[in-house]
Design brief:
The complex is a heterodimer of chains A (about 325) and B (about 240). Chain A has about 325 residues and is α/β, with parallel strands linked by helices. Chain A has ten helices and 14 strands. Classes of the chains: A alpha/beta (about 325), B mainly alpha (about 240). Chains A and B meet through α1 and α2 of A and α1 and α5 of B.
Chain lengths: ~325, ~240
């Protein structure tokens, strides 16, 4: 698998025409009246797959819209292939966008929709290009049916075919796996991996950690409009896992178990209230490795050990608090 | 296929939906229906009455309504439902999108309104030389008005999501009320340009018009201005509904 490059930012005094990373956001903010949707974000991406991870409403779509020239940054600059994205239709020659909204002309067949994209890209043989793109997303069987009758997953695939039809070096996808069944999802992940291996720069947004984990090596974590973490996925994953956690424990003798836990270095607090034992630990892995031994040594039977704050939101909140 | 032809073909297919077309056909049939009623009950209308009748039913009612529906649907609906993003994220000049869509909306309006005007005029005024002159003067005015109204309403729909309501308010309140009370405001009224055109061709068919023979020029300037504003507006268009 290709490891994405977190490419260096272009220097302000770089000579004109100097090569820059395919995707650059430099101190970019975007606000709607008093609401700050994206707050002072900087990153540069090179070839490979990068996941734009964050909870719903974090600002992922706003970032993708600014990258695709559909939204003006309130401050900072957005470059695609070294060119300003805003008010510059020429960037679309080298970029494909798969928007999150399902809207596709319902009266067109899948083939007509992809062919339309090829014609608008001024490809020499739009029909042949459309055939290749449709085959790539495995939509040949339904290509001659009206898009209005497509399932959510099929609409997603036809949008991806239209974005791929001109073979762009940069691909932006907003929640691309929404609505796909597991087989389609695996197929699409394989496709994106092979495109990345061929040297393309792919950025996709998701609010599902596992999706990003399975496909992207690089990750940008966006929380409340800020870049909470960026870099290699495994490093981010370790930060997400090895953080303070709170567990709820049910056992045959909660009081004795609470006392036993307090002797453990990984545990820094216990609380027994309303017959519920809550244990605060320094890091997830250390506690889960010792909990069974502690219970056995104290001669207590464990019924349940459950983390209480393992939601993605709490993970993101932790990452933000570290910065 | 050229970019222009591709955008035009998509727009035509988007606009010629079964329900919308049926409603517009019914609306366009009103001058013919009125002509039939007049023909059954009376002899040919006099030139002035003929002019007032066509003005009332075509220029003041049917034309702006049909142009409003096609004009706002051609671009505004696509921007609203998100399908427009598929055009906006292609390496094409935004003015090509505006011009092709305005021409499609104008052509569809004209295809319905102009034949209806001619047929209705023949039924109301008969086939006498002067009456035919009045009918064709209104037919030409409705042809010009189709493209001008459609372009204005298309631009309006790219500026606001309430293009349909504001367009309706323009046709009813501004052109119907304000232009009558404040004659100076007639220079911003498409209806007055069209009245000026008819007056230039057949002075006996309509009353005084402030713009007079300048109707052609006003209409041409307004059309070019609308397309220019629309192109600039679409070049600076920002998607709605971001997080």
């Amino acid at each position: 698998m290709t490891v994405p490059t977190f490419a260096p930012l272009p220097s302000a005094d770089a000579p004109a025409g100097a090569p820059t990373a395919p995707i650059v956001l430099e101190r970019v903010s975007r606000w709607y009246g008093p609401v700050v949707a994206v707050n002072d974000i900087t990153f540069a991406l090179g070839p490979g797959i990068t996941g734009l991870l964050g909870p719903n409403g974090a600002g992922k779509t706003t970032i993708l819209h600014m990258l695709s020239g559909l939204l003006r940054p309130s401050s900072g600059r957005v470059l695609i292939g070294g060119e300003t994205a805003w008010r510059n239709p020429s960037i679309y020659r080298g970029m494909g966008l798969v928007p999150e909204r399902e809207a596709v002309y319902p009266f067109l067949t899948g083939r007509e929709f992809v062919e339309m994209a090829a014609q608008l890209q001024r490809l020499p043989d739009p029909k042949a290009a459309a055939d290749v793109a449709i085959k790539t997303v495995d939509l040949e069987a339904a290509a001659n049916r009206a898009v209005g009758g497509y399932s959510k997953g099929m609409r997603q695939r036809v949008k991806i075919a239209a974005a791929l039809v001109h073979d762009p070096p940069i691909l932006l996808l907003d929640e691309p796996f929404n609505g796909m069944d597991p087989r389609q999802r695996i197929h699409m992940m394989d496709l994106l991996r092979s495109m990345a291996a061929a040297g393309r720069t792919i950025l996709f947004s998701s609010h599902i950690l596992e999706e990003v984990e399975r496909i992207a090596d690089g990750v940008l974590v966006i929380v409340a409009g800020r870049l909470a973490a960026a870099g290699d996925f495994r490093e981010i994953r370790r930060l997400m896992t090895d953080r303070p956690h709170t567990f709820v424990v049910r056992s045959s003798d909660d009081r004795r178990l609470a006392a036993a836990f307090m002797a453990e270095p990984a545990v820094f607090g216990t609380e027994l209230r309303d017959s519920v034992l809550t244990v605060r630990v320094a890091e997830f892995g250390g506690f889960t490795r010792t909990v069974a031994r502690v219970a056995r040594d104290a001669d207590v039977t464990l019924f349940e050990v459950a983390p209480t704050d393992d939601s993605l939101e709490s993970v993101f909140a932790y990452l933000v608090s570290r910065r | 296929m050229t970019i222009f032809a591709t955008v035009t073909a998509i727009t035509i297919r988007a606009l010629v939906g079964r329900r919308r077309t049926l409603l517009m056909l019914l609306l366009a049939g009103m001058p013919v229906l009125l002509g039939l009623i007049i023909r059954v009950n009376e002899d040919n209308l006099g030139l002035r009455i003929l002019g007032q009748t066509i003005d009332g039913i075509v220029i003041r009612t049917v034309l702006p309504l049909i142009a409003l529906v096609f004009g706002t649907a051609a671009l505004g609906s696509e921007l609203e439902d998100g399908t427009g993003v598929h055009l906006l994220t292609k390496p094409i000049n935004r003015s090509v999108i505006v011009v092709s869509k305005a021409l499609v909306a104008g052509t569809l309006t004209a295809v319905l309104v102009v034949p209806s005007t001619v047929l209705g005029g023949f039924l109301m005024g008969g086939l006498g030389g002067d009456a035919i002159g009045v009918t064709f003067a209104f037919a030409l005015a409705s042809l010009i008005g189709s493209f001008l109204y459609a372009a204005i309403f298309l631009v309006l729909s790219s500026i606001t999501t309430r293009g349909l309501i504001i367009g309706l308010a323009y046709a009813i309140i501004w052109e119907g009320l304000v232009a009558g009370l404040l004659p100076g405001s007639q220079v911003f009224s498409v209806r007055e340009y069209l009245t000026g055109i008819v007056q230039t061709l057949t002075p006996e068919a309509v009353g005084e018009s402030l713009v007079g023979t300048g109707g052609f020029l006003y209409a041409a300037v307004a059309f070019v201005l609308a397309l220019a504003i629309g192109s600039v507006r679409l070049a600076r268009y920002e998607v709605r509904g971001a997080e």
